[in-house]
Every structure is written in C-alpha cells, then in structure tokens.
Design goal:
Elements lengths: L1 E7 L5 H12 L2 E4 H10 L3 H11 L6 H15 L4 E5 L5 H13 L6 E6 L2 H15 L6 H15 L2 H7 L3 E5 L4 H15 L1
Helix pairs in contact: 2-3, 4-5, 6-7
Length: 190
C-alpha cells in the first residue's frame, strides 16, 4: 500500500490532482479541509470549534486535526493506497502522522509538492471563490492563508526531504501535464 501526501500552497491544485489520481489509481482520499467543511455543515462540536479558524485563514489547532485523522484512518482502513490532501500542515502534524503510520507498520512513501507562483495562486483562488461559495476564498483571507502556508506548512518539505521522500513538481500548465509529472514519480515508487 502506498501512502502519498499531496502538498502545496492553497490553490496549487491539490484537490484537482487528487481527483484525477483517485480515478487513475483507485486510491483512497482524505482531505482535512473537506472533512472540516462537512463537520461545519453538520454543526458538530468539531465543526463549531474549527469554523472561526477557517474563516480567519488560520490553521485549526493540531490536537483537533490529529484526533480527526486518527478516527478517519481507523474507520476507512485504506487498502490500495491513500492520498492525504491538506494534511499534514505543520511539522507537529507530520511527526504525529509518522508515529501513527509507524504504529501500523507503514510510512509516508512520497510527498508530492505542487509548486505554483504566488500571483497565479491568488488568481486561481479568487476565481474559485466566485463559484465555490467558500468563505475563505476572498482576497484578505487568501493572503492570510498564504502567509500561514509559508510560516507553518512549508517547513514540512524539509522534514520529508531529510527522509528522502520529498518530490517537487512544477504545478503550472495543463492539468493533464501536471498529472503526468506526478505519475512519473508514482511509477518510481513501484
Ligand atoms: P483546504 O480545503 O485544505 O484549503 O483547508 C481549508 C482550511 O481548513 C484551512 O485554511 C485551515 O483553516 C483548515 N485546515 C485544513 N486542513 C488543516 C490541517 N491539516 N491543519 C490545520 N488546519 C487545516
């Protein structure tokens, strides 16, 4: 079983590429952003606790996220492979994930970082905001999310770089070209 982390700034195409990979490889997909939006819709305790952080462009506290991931991994028990999308987002989350996987005799096999320039990220997110109805796809919150990404999330690349599983992938251009670049990396994983 292959455990992949699809990684990159907000708007880098993680969700889009995850959808294609699910289709092509039959992987299971866990998006912490989607899970949190569902919790908010259900008005659960977790949803209520997460909403103000999401609307402010801040990260939801690690303890809440790690608890949610533990529960989902136990429920789903993925077989063929797993794509983690939007998680881990802090080094503490990455360390917790490494421990959790180690307990189950597995590991993160590849971190696929989609690299896209800042101007393009902002344009993509503003465009998405017009159709998505997402409360955090407005210019002020987008800028905050990009700052949070650079400060808290980007250091994960180094964490996984040290383990030899980090791969940088140019994330601009046609969706199918980007998928092909990801496919080349996945093929090397066996
Ligand atoms: P996303 O859909 O991945 O862009 O996530 C939307 C928002 O949900 C983020 O801006 C965070 O507020 C929150 N979020 C999603 N995943 C995480 C995570 N792993 N850690 C902390 N906050 C998260």
């Amino acid at each position: 079983m292959l455990n992949l982390v699809i990684f990159g700034a907000p708007g880098s195409g993680k969700g889009t590429q995850s959808e294609v990979l699910i289709e092509q490889y039959g992987f299971d997909h866990i998006s912490t952003g989607d899970l949190l939006r569902e919790e908010i819709k259900q008005e659960s305790e977790l949803g209520k606790a997460a909403k103000s952080f999401i609307d402010a462009g801040q990260l939801v506290p690690d303890g809440l996220i790690i608890g949610m991931i533990e529960k989902v991994l136990e429920e789903r028990q993925p077989k063929r492979g797993l794509i983690l999308d939007g998680f881990p987002r802090t080094v503490a989350q990455a360390e917790a994930l490494d421990e959790l996987f180690a307990k189950h005799g597995t590991a993160v096999h590849a971190v696929l970082e989609l690299r896209v320039g800042e101007d393009e990220l902002i344009q993509r997110l503003l465009k998405r905001g017009m159709g998505s109805g997402r409360s955090d796809d407005n210019l002020e919150t987008i800028k905050k999310r990009l700052d949070v990404y650079h400060a808290q999330t980007a250091p994960i690349a180094e964490h996984y770089g040290k383990k030899g599983v980090h791969h940088a992938i140019p994330g601009s251009g046609a969706i199918s070209d980007i998928t092909a670049r990801i496919g080349e990396v996945i093929d090397t994983l066996g």
